[in-house]
Hints:
Number of helices of chain A: 9
CATH superfamily of the largest domain in chain A: Medium-chain alcohol dehydrogenases, catalytic domain
CATH topology of the largest domain in chain A: Quinone Oxidoreductase, Chain A, domain 1
Number of domains of chain A: 2
Strand content of chain A: 25-35%
CATH class of the largest domain in chain A: Alpha Beta
Oligomer: homodimer
Structural class of chain A: alpha/beta
Distance between the termini of chain A: 17 Å
Helix content of chain A: 10-25%
Amino acid sequence: MPTEIPNYSRPNRNRRVILARRPNGIPQPADFALDDTEMPAVAEGEFLVRNIYLSVDPAQRGWASAEANYSAPVPLGGPMRGLAVGVVVQSRCAEVAEGEFLYGWFGWQDYAAVGLAAIIQRATAAVKLSAYAGLLGINGLTAYLGLTKLGRPQPGERVLVSTAAGSVGSLVGQVARNLGAMPIGLAGDDDKVEACTERYGYAAAYNYKTADWDAALAEGPPLDVYFDNVGGPILDCALRRMAPGGRIVQCGTASTASWTPPPTGPRNEREIMTRRLVWSGFVVFDHVADFAAASQALVDWLDGDRLTFDEDIAPGIEHAPGAIKALYDGENRGKKLIFIG
Amino acid sequence: MPTEIPNYSRPNRNRRVILARRPNGIPQPADFALDDTEMPAVAEGEFLVRNIYLSVDPAQRGWASAEANYSAPVPLGGPMRGLAVGVVVQSRCAEVAEGEFLYGWFGWQDYAAVGLAAIIQRATAAVKLSAYAGLLGINGLTAYLGLTKLGRPQPGERVLVSTAAGSVGSLVGQVARNLGAMPIGLAGDDDKVEACTERYGYAAAYNYKTADWDAALAEGPPLDVYFDNVGGPILDCALRRMAPGGRIVQCGTASTASWTPPPTGPRNEREIMTRRLVWSGFVVFDHVADFAAASQALVDWLDGDRLTFDEDIAPGIEHAPGAIKALYDGENRGKKLIFIG
């Protein structure tokens, strides 16, 4: 069992963060509304989760978008799709016990009546509860599996990471370092740049808004891996700094505010061909079979003081509507969570 | 020994196709000049090859370019870098016998004094001599290795191929077909489209200049593999028809006339990410260790009447200066060779 069990009281109603309007690009506070409904009914085979931490994830932008994606768009008028850590308060499912702490698809709301398919991880006392929504949530799993399965850094190789101080990037850097590679970070302000080198094990880091990082990279050996969370002009530059046979992991496209209309950029196919790059798209949910092994590796490093994971926790569900925009604005310091316990 | 030994006479001079001017984009006839020099001297460890077939390859555009590539630009004033099939007329190298027929880096000229590193394949009587500059040259090796190692089509999968009737594309289609996949071809005129379905085993083929191939593809299942020889707008469309986990093999960028200044196009990183594509660059010379196995597979299919390879042979070295442009203009019907034997 987790070591922290929050103490809270709450009216017997289900507060929800509703997607009120289809966002164009990054979801804005006004795209959401808060409402308050009856408690959800629990069908046979389901269980009722009371959420404690709502996870704020860059991927929610894609989930809320009307554009083609790897999942159907979040319906308007329903609770925002989101991951959360919660406790089971009622169960009609033999495989789930009341009192269990779970991480999964519980939505941005107080309560969710869901089935087994909604569970991503079951929490244990190995780490604090909030970590299941970050270090051992999709952020840590993405960093570990995206880098090890698609980036495949070898000892001594140079690994560039964008959003290097973020919830995914800060772990990509540390995973790379723990594997013997040399991570180089790009971040959007000087505090984050400092965190990269002081806290997250980066060999070097640059403020991409103010430093000529491309010139700095050009002075060193070429890049073997680029773990890309942003796309756009930074990607275009990084491609042209890759070594032959380099791997690009496309994990996010945060730098592009809207895909409607489709933005343009320099054609990159010649770089891919002449440098023999391998440019792969990563979505963590393709790798469910590897979650347990990845979690164990992360916990082992955490226990061995080889991993730091920062959290930025806002108290109260009223912080949810503005949270995705704040994330894209780079305001968070560590994994953004909403504590509603 | 090959079954055909050409009968020829030639003055004891070395005619050469010189790169006279640095091309911008596709090399034009005026970028070349013909000259005539002393016979090259053969140093210890070298051997003298008299060329019989000069190979005309799309890759020569890149070799002649001043831009960064996988090889240094061809020096101005020297013979154009090119592959050829020739016969050894003098040897000061223990591993090479006079009378041997070889395929390799012998340049666009009558004679080359070279060392072992210049050899790509040694010809045998298994197939006719010209095939070593095409089917068993970089074209066939590229088709076989690019498709099997990077495209990895599974039985029943849909494989789109651009320049589908070309020296590489016509083989990609047939390799895909022989592996049980369903090749779909794009070609630039109706004769080539007909050759795709009538000669090269394509399940379907479209004239990309006149047919709404994108709409036709949209009616069927998505694509699992795109073997791309052209880049540009066709690539942009194809990416948006890929199945999740689809593989793109970037083998050429023939549709872009010049990379100076860099052309622009729609940003593709979101497609890569959301569809979890794997987009890889292919250069055949990375795969030398696999040439023997690939050649054997191609010869087996040829012997089993499961492979057709067409050649378009121009007689006389005077055809060389215009040959690369003609190739990019789509004028050839099958593998373009210059017979100078």
